[in-house]
């Protein structure tokens, strides 16, 4: 167990599962959980071992919050109730509509835009937005080898954001997990580079950290936007 | 963070109104809502262990219906588990309003994630408590806490957990981890209990236990290693 991890990383995985980490240490551990499958597995194993302690919590009479919960259920679409294929096809249409609003986009890397002479490769950007103010901004390296995405506002979740590209064929391909806070640099493999181009859709869904990159999203996207060259 | 010598009135208040001892004495179980509201026909003939198994099986079945999009099943899960999960949220956030917000989030998470519950791998109440604990810890790491729990094992907080564990030992088979936890040296055990049940962070542990940060970190790490050794040899 933990054989792939250094003792320091194995200890960090245990501490993340227990919940004692805070501040930068917690952020670092969460980043490892996103990017390192062996670390994520170690966290999962520790959780499986520690979770039965939860039975030791004492009850406290809860106020009746059911109607409030039910109201929030009404406001939330349920992925399983709608065909996933239809959702993702619809995503393309919706993203087109969002792209129409891109005129008002707050360009993520405006300094880079200013410093890029018109004669060189265009700056490629996307704004990914969703309901509840979810907002991410992305830009593509001029060589197309990597994409930088910044999470501006994401809903709080134990799940982690996974980035997808939906090219013209409408089939989402995972670009991997991204950080729920701050910037993530996403290296694009040779096979993905031709897909991450002007006009393709970028989308983010919330997924479990284990098993990523996934072959298909498990739920509706929380944000999406069209890639635009400007 | 402000370390107060005593807990604020609000924190003490709900404890004063709620006695797990009375509840355990009346119902025989800490996790008693299933039994109270839905007694099996042959309740008198069933042993405590049978009842525990019946409750677990019923709750697992409800979660499986939630996974299929059955809202009434989620309402039934809320009915049976909200006191337990509110206990988790309140204990860790130490703020009633926050605990109510987190509890709502918890049931939305249950709604969205019920498809991942697998009764062959986890007890339903363990699975639910883990969602609640993680959500509450996310909240306190994001917002901070106003007060620290106290380390004295004679405080009501620790006593409640002891009672919960005693009641559980009477009512159903107790998880091995409780025996492993009790076998740890006192300081390691206390640090891990505070971290797990009160959501205390490394720096909070150092403040509560009044030792350097490196000392509590080492207690936590050695304690977790010994726990794992115990679990894997048991």
Provide the fold topology.
The complex is a heterodimer of chains A (230) and B (234).
Chain A: H1 7-18, H2 23-35, H3 37-50, H4 66-74, H5 84-100, H6 110-115, E1 124-129, E2 135-140, E3 146-153, E4 160-166, E5 173-177, E6 182-187, E7 201-207, E8 223-226, E9 228-229
Helix pairs in contact in A: 1-3, 2-3
Chain B: H1 9-17, H2 20-27, H3 33-37, H4 48-67, H5 71-93, H6 96-113, H7 124-143, H8 156-171, H9 176-182, H10 186-198, H11 202-209, H12 213-233
Helix pairs in contact in B: 4-5, 5-6, 5-7, 6-7, 9-12, 10-12, 11-12
Question: How many helices of chain A?
Answer: 6
Name the poorly predicted regions of chain A: 78-90, 96-120
Structural class of chain B: mainly alpha
Task: Give the largest interface.
Answer: A-B, 43 and 79 residues
Give me the oligomer status. Answer: heterodimer
Whole-Å distance between the termini of chain B? 40 Å
In terms of DSSP E residues, the strand content of chain A is: 15-25%
Helical segment tally of chain B? Answer: 12
- Number of E strands of chain B: 0
- Give the fraction of residues assigned to helices of chain A: 25-40%
Average pLDDT across residues of chain B? 78
Low-confidence runs of chain B: 1-40, 151-156
Report the structural category of chain A. alpha+beta
Record field, number of beta strands of chain A: 9
Q: Distance between the terminal alpha carbons of chain A, to the nearest Å?
A: 50 Å
Nearest-angstrom radius of gyration of chain B?
18 Å
**Coarse shape of chain B:** globular
Q: What order do the helices and strands of chain B follow? A: HHHHHHHHHHHH
Shape of chain A: globular
């Amino acid at each position: 167990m933990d054989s792939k991890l250094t003792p320091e990383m194995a200890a960090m995985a245990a501490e993340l599962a227990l919940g004692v980490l805070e501040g930068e240490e917690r952020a670092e551990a969460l980043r490892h959980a996103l990017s390192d499958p062996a670390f994520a597995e170690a966290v999962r194993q520790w959780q499986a071992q520690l979770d039965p302690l939860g039975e030791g919590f004492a009850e406290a009479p809860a106020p009746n919050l059911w109607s409030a919960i039910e109201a929030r259920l009404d406001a939330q679409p349920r992925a399983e109730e709608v065909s996933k294929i239809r959702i993702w096809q619809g995503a393309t249409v919706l993203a087109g509509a969002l792209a129409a609003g891109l005129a008002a986009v707050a360009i993520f890397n405006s300094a880079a835009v200013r410093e890029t002479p018109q004669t060189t490769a265009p700056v490629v950007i996307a704004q990914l937005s969703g309901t509840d103010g979810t907002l991410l901004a992305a830009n593509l390296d001029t060589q197309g080898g990597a994409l930088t995405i910044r999470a501006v506002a994401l809903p709080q979740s134990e799940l982690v954001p996974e980035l997808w590209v939906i090219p013209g064929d409408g089939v989402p391909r995972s670009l991997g997990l991204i950080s729920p806070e701050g910037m993530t640099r996403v290296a694009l493999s040779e096979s993905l580079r031709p897909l991450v181009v002007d006009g393709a859709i970028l989308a983010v869904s919330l997924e479990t950290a284990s098993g990523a990159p996934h072959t298909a999203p498990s739920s509706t996207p929380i944000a999406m936007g069209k890639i635009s060259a400007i | 963070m402000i370390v107060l010598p005593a807990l604020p009135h609000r924190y003490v208040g709900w404890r004063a109104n709620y006695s797990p001892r009375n509840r355990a004495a009346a119902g025989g179980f800490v996790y008693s809502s299933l039994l109270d509201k839905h007694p099996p026909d042959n309740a008198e003939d069933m042993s405590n262990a049978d009842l525990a198994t019946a409750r677990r099986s019923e709750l697992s079945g409800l979660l499986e219906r939630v996974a299929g999009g059955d809202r009434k099943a989620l309402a039934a899960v809320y009915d049976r588990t909200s006191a337990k999960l509110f206990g988790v949220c309140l204990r860790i956030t130490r703020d009633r309003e926050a605990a109510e917000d987190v509890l709502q989030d918890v049931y939305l998470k249950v709604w969205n994630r019920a498809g991942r519950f697998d009764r062959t791998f986890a007890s339903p109440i363990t699975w639910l408590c883990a969602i609640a604990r993680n959500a509450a810890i996310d909240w306190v790491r994001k917002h901070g806490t106003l007060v620290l729990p106290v380390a004295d094992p004679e405080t009501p907080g620790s006593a409640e957990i002891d009672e919960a564990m005693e009641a559980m030992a009477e009512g159903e088979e107790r998880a091995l981890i409780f025996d492993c936890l009790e076998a740890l040296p006192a300081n390691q055990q206390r640090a891990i209990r505070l971290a797990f049940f009160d959501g205390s962070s490394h720096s909070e542990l150092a403040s509560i236990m009044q030792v350097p940060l490196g000392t509590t970190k080492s207690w936590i790490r050695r304690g977790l290693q010994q726990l794992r050794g115990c679990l894997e040899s048991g």
